Amino acid sequence: MTGRRAADGGPGGPDPAPVRMVAWVHGHVQGVGFRWWTRSRALELGLVGYAANKADGRVHVVAEGPRRACLQLVDLLRGGDGPGTVELVVDSWEPARGDLTGFRER
Known about the structure:
Alpha-Beta Plaits, 5-stranded mixed beta sheet, 2 helices, globular
């Protein structure tokens, strides 16, 4: 085993129940390709969901899939390597609803 516990979805472990991660991304994140960038990262991680511009300048990101992949997406959102300038990411978590397909820009 590579240091990951089986309960975390490590080798030989069961797939953990999928989660829904909801993130509100604050900063200069509209008109700079941020939703496209987020969609690309989410698809690379095997997530479903969407990234949507909001009237107040934030981007609303909803992603479902394995907890580890959702955590990676949140880290990427906060990481500063994407387009624009992220000032703050506020995330919340709940069980997956299973009502999403693909990953879309809204």
